[in-house]
Design a protein that fits this description.
- The complex is a heterotrimer of chains A (about 140), B (about 475) and C (about 150).
- With about 140 residues, chain A is α/β, with parallel strands linked by helices.
- Helix content of chain A is about 25%, strand content about 30%.
- Chain A folds into two domains: about 35 residues; about 100 residues, Cupredoxins -  blue copper proteins (Immunoglobulin-like, Sandwich), CATH 2.60.40.420.
- A three-stranded mixed sheet of chain A has the order 1-3-6.
- In chain B, about 60% of the residues lie in helices and about 5% in strands.
- Chain B starts with a strand and ends with a helix.
- With about 150 residues, chain C is of the alpha+beta class.
- Chain C is elongated.
- The chains are: A alpha/beta (about 140), B mainly alpha (about 475), C alpha+beta (about 150).
- The interface between B and C is large, with 51 and 46 residues.
Chain lengths: ~140, ~475, ~150
Amino acid sequence: MQKKHIMEVVAGLLVVIATVVAIAGVLYYEDKLNRERHTVVLLARAPELGNWDLPEIDLTQGEPVRLKIRNVDTVTHGFTIPELGVGINNPVEIKAGHVAFVELTPAKEGTFLYACSVWCSKQHPQMTGKIIVSRR
Amino acid sequence: MTEKILGIFPVDWRYDLTSLPHVRKILKSRWVPFLFIVLNLSVFTVILMAAFVGGISAGNYNFGIMFVWIVWWVLLMLVLVPIFSRAWCMTCPLPAFGEWLQRLHFLGVRKKLFGLNKKWPKPLRNMWLMNFLFLGTTYTSGFLTTRPLATFILLMTIIVGSIVLCMVYERRNFCVYGCPVSGFQGLYSNLAVTEIRAKNPEICKNHKIRECVIGNERGYACPWMQQPFNMKRNTYCGMCLECFKTCEHDNMVINLRPPAVDLLVDEKRGLDEAWKAFIMLGIAIFFFLIMQGPFGTLKDWANAKTLEGYLTFIGLHSTFNLLILPGIFLAFAFGSQRLASREVALKKVFTNFSYTLVPLGLMAWVAFSFGILFPNSSYVLHVISDPFAWGWDLLGTSHFPWTPFMTGIMPLFQVGSLLLGLVLSLDIGFKISKQTFQTRDEAVAGFYPIAAFLTLATMFLIWLFTG
Amino acid sequence: MKNDRVKNETILVLIIILFASSPLALAQQEETKERVITIEASRFSYKPEIIEVNEGDKVTIRFISTDVHHGLFIDGYELSTDTKPGEEGNITFVADRTGKFAMRCSVTCGPFHPYMISYLKVKPDYRLFTSIYLALIVFIVSILFVSRRQKP
């Protein structure tokens, strides 16, 4: 009877690994990736679907940050911070369902506009947000 | 003279796959199919998570949508059902929780099942419920295949629903009579080249205590409520392998066999299965028109751009599948009866010949699947590297661009499949005609209209898919 | 006897159908033309939904979008272009392959993007005629096969 119980426990463990542990593992891995570098996750959506999920992004002058832009929409979006030169010479385009990484170290303090740089909807001109850079 | 399928395969040819080394031992272990189910469960965990996290983002870049509607559905049609019969049911993780709850064990055997253990209502012991559930599910295909959250809701509904049904009804009644996919697999597994049967009927005849039916300390009573010693068709056998464990005479086997032989078994043929054949063929036609056709209006209807459009789609879709297609077939069945012998009831002619739609129906789905596979399978490479759209690149393929391949010869694959379906349907059709009518002359005359229907249907499908 | 007559009449009818329809397959070749076709993309279909050209035509497709970024990929020819609102994409090719080819959207443009398809038909569609004839031949062979007299 001992053997049967051991088999049952092993079977149960396999089920837990396949489900709960798998989910936990995935979440842990993603969290680890975001913590490796200071990462700010930004969701790109057309204005009618919610617009950028961070209308204001707070950054510190001189501190490197990695923007992880996830396009959770079904059309291509773009990203640009004209006053900081992001997405000007090298356009940042994020296809639907894809993710783009933008490395950024804000040199000056102030409030800067960021916007979608690809025509994505009738309300495309409203797809903007603010980046607020404060002194160290 | 033994009948032969396509003039090549003797209808009663069987090769016992369990005679190969180690196979029998593996099938008799309680770890099988448990290990396969757990493996599948881990993939489903990723599918469910990705579908949930995906929300209303792009379905073509979502692991959940890709793996359910592209990988799994195509695999089911092209490989699993035609070759391995209901082997998907063997490994399906959706009712697993319900069953483990009934058994209060993952592996071990318990005498009584936990739960109310009610018997399934008699009037529903057929395919009708599944016909309507499957048809109903197809109303939402526009959303299921494009919005990850919709796929999540469908899968969770099946998981929760099966747990509830497992707690109320005995054993795998959900799988046998309730699962939308079960109806399709049930009928089409009649085509498969594998089967589970008792090897030596003499042994079963003399073995009065049917352990395969009532269970013993080595395994459960057949969860699919079948009589393993007596199975004549694949239709309701979920290949769970319990009977391999319970049979003290080691008499259960998995056979390799010619295709479509179950369609010739004149047992429990019914209008429920006939309608399943019509529905599957009709849905293939409608889905092709909407998803692979050029008509923007139809796509707007299926996408529910307007309520009227959506209701129009549901109305036309249902009417065609439930009434129009069967109606057209009825006319040809009527012709068959008139030409052959009025002594055979029209209902019998109609029902029997409806089984000839199974090979053609499967080939219509195979052709449809090629239409998905060649243009869109490259998306799978993206989702396996970045399953949750979090910017991962596990296998280095997350930036693999959309790459259609071999689109030039894709129509040849489609035409080839449809013609193969026609040939098999005609072959089965004549054999069924000989079963339906008394004399060979009657069978020949009765076959003409059915052959005409099958050929016209094939020509229509060829034109639809490739013209 | 009756069966034989029915059988012979049926075969005769079928042969007549076969010959009567063969002129369609050998349709007169039209003069090849240069065509410029404008295809308008909007979620989730193209206008026109079906384009028909003749084998050998030189086809130029002007591709415009009325709402978002769309693409156009031609099956078989494996040519593509894309366009954003206000721009114009272009594909020029000689229609040297006959048959029906799906033209698909190659830029994800919304939920129904995978179903955004239109058709290019290059006539005459030899493949279609051949396939339909093959189905007819299968039918005739099967009828002849079952109708033959069994040896006593």
